[in-house]
Amino acid sequence: MQVNENFKPVIVAFCCNWCSYAGADLSGTNRLNYPANVKIIRVPCSCRVNPMFILRAFQKGADGVIICGCHPGDCHYTSGNYFTRRRITLLYSMLDFLGIERKRTRLEWVSAAEGAKFASVMEQFVSDVQKLGPNRRLEDLRCRKQ
Amino acid sequence: MQEAMIKRAVQLLADGTVNRVMGWKRGEFVYDITPAVFTTAEELEKDFVCDDFTQANLSKYLVKESRKEGKILAFLKPCDTYSFNQLVKEHRIIRENVYVIGIPGGPKLDIEKIKAKGITGILSVENENYTLKIETIYGTETMPFSEAVSGKCSGCKSKKHVAYDELIGDDGEVLDSNRFDMVAKLENMTSQERFDFWRGELSKCIRCNACRNVCPACTCENCVFDNPKSGIDQKAAADSFEEKMFHIIRAFHVAGRCTDCGECSRVCPQNIPLHLLNRKFIKDINELYGEYQAGADTTSRAPLNNYNADDCEPSVVHERGVE
What structural domains and CATH numbers belong to chain A? Predict the structure, then answer.
């Protein structure tokens, strides 16, 4: 497969306020680099991420969506990420069923202490999506800015 | 069957147990059946029908009907009782205001399958020992019953009534159906083939919202898709896969609550196999979180309102099947 090196994917990352957002912050204070294509959206808990947010991001032209939350068992609200896990598993399975490329979606558990993990996950995810090229299957042309 | 139902309904109206009856009535053609509410014995005797075409699931209408004054009588087929139970569980139907009579289910007939044989001008359809005798304005035609069975009946999951106050006819058993065969077939295709299949199907969607309006699990008063700020509202189609978001989210909103009654595919004017999306969720839930049949009872916790500490990670869906 030919990879367009100039293609800069747009990545939307939903990060939980208590773990992953702090993890992203830590990777910044540790001066670790992660790709600038990642647009972070802070959410109070990973289970705040409605499946519609994910599809909406794709519809409006995102090339990849990643959800980051606390490790199972460490949720600030006790059980939020357990619900996320079921929900997102089913949604990703459905997207796969409809023939959407598997590597465009991802869920990772990143704690507030894992700045390095955050940077490496993003690095990896961006390069995976870059190989896939632009998102054509889930984009909605009606949402494109004129 | 029909006579027994009318007789019992008239009795219940007369003794004041109920003041309305929910059933079906005929439209312009014999196969043109619509759900209806009857209030008098005369109306019942004149219009009430229950035959091979009365497929419509009456449960959803009871959401509104059970909030009106007095008790309503509803005739429910086995598949409809699952939807009924699910709505009772979600506090959408007020159980005390409904008197349920369970009636035997299908298989019911799909008029489109008869018309697809080139039979037109249909006046009446009789079932004689599983051969259909079809009177048309051009003469009499025959065809096997099995070839005209509706899609929602061919994968029947259960002939058991899960909620009723009384029964007319016998209660059946939960069946061992092959309803997941098509889902499994799609799962074994490659990603590109699946995409082509679904783009082909969903490109036919005209967003008439019939699937949403008929679905017994879709009972929100304000739907997320009625959103003028969505950016796609009132805009013409721009590509061939543009209604996917509606269908994915609609299926997701009923995941874990869908009883697989098959109404969505039945009413689709474009014949999109929408039930496959719901069945995919049901199949995944069964495989990943244990067997679950929505509507089978009114107490269990739905799989998406529940969790286990050792549930699988989403990456499992990416490891199985074909990319």
Answer: 11-135 (3.40.50)
